[in-house]
């Protein structure tokens, strides 16, 4: 990342905050100019006192200048801090909104903890960049120029000695800050990895505890913390080197001015008041030099954070295509399939297709079961139906139109999804049920609760619908989470509901109740269910068999038992039931043994 690119990114970031940044710079410059006026008045006060008369008006003016300088600098710092906080809020809003729209294929390649660190920690680092680079940096340059002019007017010979000392120190500082950028980028990356490892451990804390892996995760986190410690220590060391160089320059210049100035006063080349004025002005020279160094150092440290933020903002997002689509002539929503796959090919990695020419249509009503072994592509079909990914070849149609020309919001309003692990969000049960559903009447909410068997559960909760469900819904059982997820989907009133193994966490009684619910729901909208349990498959009006990334059979349960040997094996292997006459069942692997509560298909 070149210096020009860093400054260009910085200017682009600060474009919307020009007025407060320029205001802070103006206040800082005003404080510097007020400070540089003080040596001139001090000269008059010292020369007057040396002559035997104390100039009280001059002393009063000095007191007023001190107060005005302090007020200007305090106000400048507040404006800088306010601007930095506002910019951080806006930047975090931009990053988080972008992250919520990033394509899942891009998120699959990253670590969530590192992205969180970029949205939180790196944006805070950029705040320091704005507060210490643009406002103070500009004011520092102007103040340095004014101080040099004043010192040259007071005594050019003493100024030459000061320039030599400060010039060497400034060169050393620039050499240090070049290394600060590299150390800062490494430190921020290490912090991001630490956050990612911590999110990994806490996100799977139940697995960690169940596998007795607390020590293993502690060691992993300790290693990440050690990397962050060393990276931050290197950066702190680079910054620490700048302090002695600046202090040495100030001390050396001060001593030089006193020695040479005393000689010039004794020879009559300058008065004592002029020496005091020059010494006081020289002390004010250190402030703009320090501000310039702080600005350069902040750019070096913040450029790494800004680069990491720009990497997030460069991730591709879901963008709707503004395409006008003509209505389907001579068709209604009842006659046109709600969802259709036409020769769909897709792979998560180039050259490794997961789906191979998948084609099927889902009518506007009824229930379809999707069966097949694990890894056959069932969940991938759901991911494409929900438009989490786009096909590599072929097309997905919604209500007879290519889904690619439908907005993501409109498509997902029509296609609801209930995932197998049924993730819930931290908050109350009511918030989870109504999440994304829009206005819902109390009567409709009660009806859906009854349909999904949640009425009794809600009545038993301490605060009813306002009971917190915990992080990821962990205060509820697996079956309860599943029913809540189904109810949430029903409250959104979609045209099609995708259910990934809805009976996985249900007991036999709840499974029977859910089957009745699905039958009722299928009379008003379409259902596609990834099914492993035999009872779920038999209740579906149509079955799609998926194997090797393709739909290998399509039909009713009884028809497929007669026509598809592969489906027969899935349906009857290990169940203890006799296969239909004249259709022997192939040897069944032990992994296809039935569940205790219900017969189970492979997968």
From TrEMBL:
It comes from the Bacteria. Residues 577-603 are annotated as: Disordered. SMART domains: AAA. Residues 22-301 form the ABC transmembrane type-1 domain. It is a multi-pass membrane protein. SUPFAM superfamilies: ABC transporter transmembrane region (SSF90123), P-loop containing nucleoside triphosphate hydrolases (SSF52540). Residues 339-573 form the ABC transporter domain. Keywords: ATP-binding, Membrane, Nucleotide-binding, Transmembrane, Transmembrane helix. Its main location: membrane. It is found in: Cell membrane. One of its GO terms (molecular function) is ATP binding. The keyword Membrane applies. The keyword Ribosomal protein does not apply. The chain crosses the membrane at residues 21-42, 54-79, 134-151, 157-177. InterPro entries: AAA+_ATPase, ABC1_TM_dom, ABC1_TM_sf, ABC_transporter-like_ATP-bd, ABC_transporter-like_CS, P-loop_NTPase, Type_1_exporter. This is ABC transporter ATP-binding protein.
């Amino acid at each position: 990342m070149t210096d020009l690119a860093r400054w260009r990114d910085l200017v682009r970031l600060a474009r919307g905050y020009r007025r407060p940044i320029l205001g802070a710079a103006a206040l800082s410059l005003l404080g510097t100019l007020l400070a540089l006026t003080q040596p001139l008045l001090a000269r008059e006060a010292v020369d007057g006192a040396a002559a035997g008369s104390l100039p009280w008006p001059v002393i009063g003016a000095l007191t007023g200048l001190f107060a005005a300088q302090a007020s200007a600098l305090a106000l400048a710092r507040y404006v800088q801090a306010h601007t930095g906080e506002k910019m951080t809020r806006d930047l975090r809003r931009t990053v988080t909104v972008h992250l919520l729209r990033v394509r899942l294929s891009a998120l699959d390649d990253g670590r969530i903890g590192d992205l969180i660190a970029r949205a939180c920690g790196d944006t805070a680092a950029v705040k320091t960049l704005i507060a210490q680079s643009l406002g103070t940096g500009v004011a520092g340059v102007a103040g340095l120029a004014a101080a040099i002019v004043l010192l040259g007017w007071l005594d050019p010979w003493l100024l030459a000695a000061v320039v030599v000392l400060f010039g060497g120190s400034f060169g050393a500082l620039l050499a240090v800050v070049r290394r600060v950028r590299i150390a800062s980028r490494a430190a921020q990356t290490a912090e991001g990895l630490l956050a990612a490892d911590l999110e990994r451990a806490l996100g799977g804390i139940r697995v960690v505890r169940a596998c007795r892996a607390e020590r293993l995760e502690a060691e992993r986190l300790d290693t990440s913390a050690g990397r962050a410690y060393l990276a931050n220590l290197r950066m702190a060391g680079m910054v620490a080197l700048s302090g002695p160089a600046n202090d040495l320059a100030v001390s050396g210049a001060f001593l030089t001015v006193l020695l040479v100035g005393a000689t010039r006063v004794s020879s009559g080349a300058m008065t004592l008041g002029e020496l005091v004025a020059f010494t006081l002005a020289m002390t004010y020279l250190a402030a703009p030099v320090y501000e310039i160094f702080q600005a350069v150092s902040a750019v070096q440290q913040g450029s790494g954070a800004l680069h990491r933020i720009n990497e997030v903002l460069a991730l591709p997002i879901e963008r709707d295509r503004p395409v006008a689509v003509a209505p389907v002539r001579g068709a209604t929503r009842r006659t046109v399939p709600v969802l259709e796959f036409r020769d769909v090919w897709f792979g998560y990695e180039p050259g490794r297709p997961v789906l191979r020419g998948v084609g099927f249509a889902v009518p506007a009503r009824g229930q379809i079961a999707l069966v097949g072994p694990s890894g056959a592509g069932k969940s991938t079909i759901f991911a494409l139906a929900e438009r989490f990914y786009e096909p590599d070849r072929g097309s997905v149609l919604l209500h007879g139109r290519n889904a690619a020309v439908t907005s993501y919001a409109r498509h997902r309003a029509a296609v609801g999804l209930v995932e197998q692990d049924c993730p819930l969000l931290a908050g109350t049960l009511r918030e989870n049920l109504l999440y994304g559903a829009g206005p819902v009447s109390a009567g409709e909410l009660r009806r859906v609760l009854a349909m999904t068997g949640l009425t009794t559960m809600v009545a038993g909760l301490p605060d009813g619908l306002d009971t917190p469900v915990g992080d990821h819904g962990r205060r509820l059982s697996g079956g309860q989470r599943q029913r809540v997820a189904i109810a949430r989907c029903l409250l959104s009133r979609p045209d099609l509901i995708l259910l990934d193994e809805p009976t996985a966490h249900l007991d036999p009684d709840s499974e029977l109740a859910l089957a009745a619910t699905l039958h009722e729901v299928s009379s008003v909208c379409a259902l596609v269910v990834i099914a492993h349990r035999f009872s779920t498959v038999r209740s579906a009006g149509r079955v799609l068999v998926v194997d090797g990334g393709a739909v290998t059979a399509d039909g009713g349960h009884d028809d497929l038992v007669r026509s598809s040997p592969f489906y027969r094996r899935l349906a009857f292997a290990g169940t203890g039931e006799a296969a239909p006459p004249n259709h022997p069942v192939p040897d069944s692997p032990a992994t296809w043994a039935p569940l205790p509560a219900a017969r189970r298909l492979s997968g």
